[in-house]
């Protein structure tokens, strides 16, 4: 994702949110934030009472994507919190955060198995995300900041290793797109996601 | 959208946000909120310092969808604010809000032309939205609350009258979906959206 | 109340505020808010950390007025919340909210009796409110926005059906008023309130 | 007002709120707060994002009462802020704050004349406030905390030296009151207010 | 401390913060605030969502200083809250608040012994604070506002009666200071603190 | 500083805070925050309306220390913001943040000279900070988390290369300390700070 750097940390917390108590099932949630120095010009820290709605939307996306591949019962009544803090932003921070979070989650699961917080791996399958876009009619994979700012269509796709969709989020920033263009974008995303899974292999090997 | 009722109001405001000053171009933005009595049990009003991230995500979607069909230059340096207040919630509030907002926006444009705020219609084409979903492998159009809560996949689609996509947002709540299923969902959405445009004809006829 | 429209909703909530726990007695409270599109120009939604002190004052008045005609013991340990959301504002929103809330409360009591939340009607008597004012020395009943903005004295009166006062709130916006003028205003309010009770008869008949 | 102690300070601020700019007219406003140690048990300081609606209602009352006796044009484009901080609370804090603020305002006007901020006294007449109440059918003047907590009706009256009303605020905490009882309460308030004006004479003599 | 006036109130609260529950030990904490009228020009009250970081730093200092001379076990599971509200500010408000708080704490301990909240005096020894500074190379004791604003070094010292340090906080506002200058400042502080203890004798005698 | 890791970023911002406008002088300020994953258990992100007073105190200290070695006139009307984000916390985060910030500031000054924001180096001399403490009567340099939690006295010292003090902040967490012990602590700090300056040499060499 260009020069984007996102620090992804997974933390085990005993217990689950109040609405899920005594269900025997766990929870996975994510928080996303950009450090002030991650952009130029510097981005002010959120003041009390001001909301960064873009960040909230992204952290909901991260949480939803990961939860789609987690078996809550195997997680027992534990919560895993993924903290995604952007250290350097160059486009694609949300897909970088999903992929980094998946690795952190996998790491946390290993730790939890070792520490006997859980006895079975709750991750049902791997998931990864990429961005694709349309620029002057051409499909482009993994948009960095410069590409993103001129794209007519911006789409984020999260898929499983078996090639099924977990999230499909496409917006026509300028020009609405046809069904055929959508098909092309999805195919390009499929190819990109295969590459991410290869990165996972390296990152998670020990 | 089932028994969902959303009050959509469009307001003209002279001027544009600071970052857009002296561009000669206008802006369209939306705010979305649920009245406390719109759900059972009653939903508390947002307290200072607490954020309703779902609402923020929805209002960003509404604004983005409408802006995709607005010619900012014809709008001149004016802002149109769409307020979407849910009076009764029964699933599909976000698509109801998009469609209601489009009608309010059209109405506001007529008013602006009459009052000479603008001289040309800035709406480039009509846009409408529906939800579709997968329930036990079957595609379903326009999910009400009961359907939504059991759906495996929940998708919101916004399209123009010419059949091109403005927004495609699909999430696998439980089971990831195949490319074929995505195709079926998009086709169903196309049919639903045609019906919405007929409702527009009635609503906007005078 | 002119073209004022206030949506009043009553919700049953089991339990009472912490300071009233285990008293065997219920509670009635109100919240008041103006939708952004209810005024021209549009009224911004309250931001986190900013307080609409006028709205807080009004919701305290609504709650106090209704509580004066409620027998807490018959309500048992339940809370009824009245949500008053102004959809269109043209003066007299606080008296409209009191009267609309009384109707919603009566409706909620019927529902609670039917659902066996309670066994006896906790409403001890009817209460209604009107505004009166002095404009250039003349008394005026039910001030709409135009009248309100030129009034020398603005007074809100809540009375029971037996003609006793529950709330008397008069402010000299410009010119202090004499005891005689106060007497005239109270008499005018008595006549206005009788009319409101007739509206109640129609609204609550089924 | 029993053992109530309120520190009232008036501050001159050049300029007026934005909505009043370039009107040639001034503004008077008040802020009211209770120190944590003013009550037993200790009252927590307002946290960010929590609202003390009682305090907001009182400060609006103080401001309105004082503005009724101020000629804005003679004040020129200046703001006088009255800070009312309750050091010890024993009932009647709102009337104590009005009376203390009137003295502070008078003092500030003298200072402003001396410093040539203004050339004419903008105070048109004196104003003072007392509380009256009904306890078991008897009228009571100046309720301290013990009386206030058992009163059936609680009323705050602000009057000018000429005996005209500026504010009349009465609430039936328990039992609605008749027109005759209202008359008795107003007469008692008239007598109490005469005593306050004598206190003013002493406080403002130099 | 010049014309500085700080109202210091100590309140007993049963129980301790959550993290200290069931430890058998008490807690002492402080809150510091400046009344709006304590400075010229008037200081605005803290708005929701805005933080007065200077005030927070000071209240942490006050709490820490007092806790250094309190035996938590003798205090049992009680909290004493010190409220320091500045009524008039003329430099040295933090040291005035520490000294005033120590007197209020001593007073509260007497009250707690009398009321049998505790059976032994938890204050292990007396503590007092002064400010010292360097102005053009000269050491100065107890800086008022005028001195403070021109000081090159500003230092606050809290000491026990036995001459040991509890807090040493020195900042070079303009010119860094030598070890020798630090020694001179500490000696001056020792002399000043002896005088404060004499004031305590008078204040606490009954 | 043990295993502590603090990310320090310096950003140039044109202009200065409002109170410093048109003075011809610049400003240096710092912000300090701990990432949620920097501690175990995970530290929640600050919610709107809640204040992390420890963090505010630290960022004031960082800013003050750096400003003591900056010539505002050479900085012109520019602001340099230092963001200190703790990635891993193991004691000594405040001194690590000061030292990291000094390096970032030096780096930013080089950049500003190259980009011609300024023409002269505004840093008047180097400054560095260490923590020292007393544990069971023994002086200890550079306390990590384990040492810090058992220390009787905790002191942070910032010094210039010429051996003069910029900040001296010592608190007796448990036992007040003598003048002699203070002298020992200051001597130990002097030795530690010399080592930091050697680290600077390496970090800033290019």
Could you provide a short overview of the structure?
The structure is a homohexamer of 206-residue chains. With 206 residues, the first copy, chain A, is of the alpha+beta class.
Description of the structure:
The structure is a homohexamer. Chain A is α+β, with helices and mostly antiparallel strands. The first copy, chain A, has helices spanning about 55-65, 70-75, 95-115, 145-150, 180-205, and strands spanning about 5-15, 25-35, 80-90, 125-135, 140, 155-160, 165-170. The first copy, chain A, has one domain: Ribosomal Protein S5, domain 2 (2-Layer Sandwich). Chain A is about 35% helix and about 30% strand. In chain A, the strands form two sheets. In chain A, strands 5-4-6-7 form a four-stranded antiparallel β-sheet. In chain A, helix 1 packs across helix 3 and helix 3 runs parallel beside helix 5. The two termini of chain A are about 25 Å apart. Chains in contact: A-B, A-C, A-E, A-F, B-C, B-D, B-F, C-D, C-E, D-E, D-F, E-F. Strand 7 of chain A pairs antiparallel with strand 7 (about 165-170) of chain B.
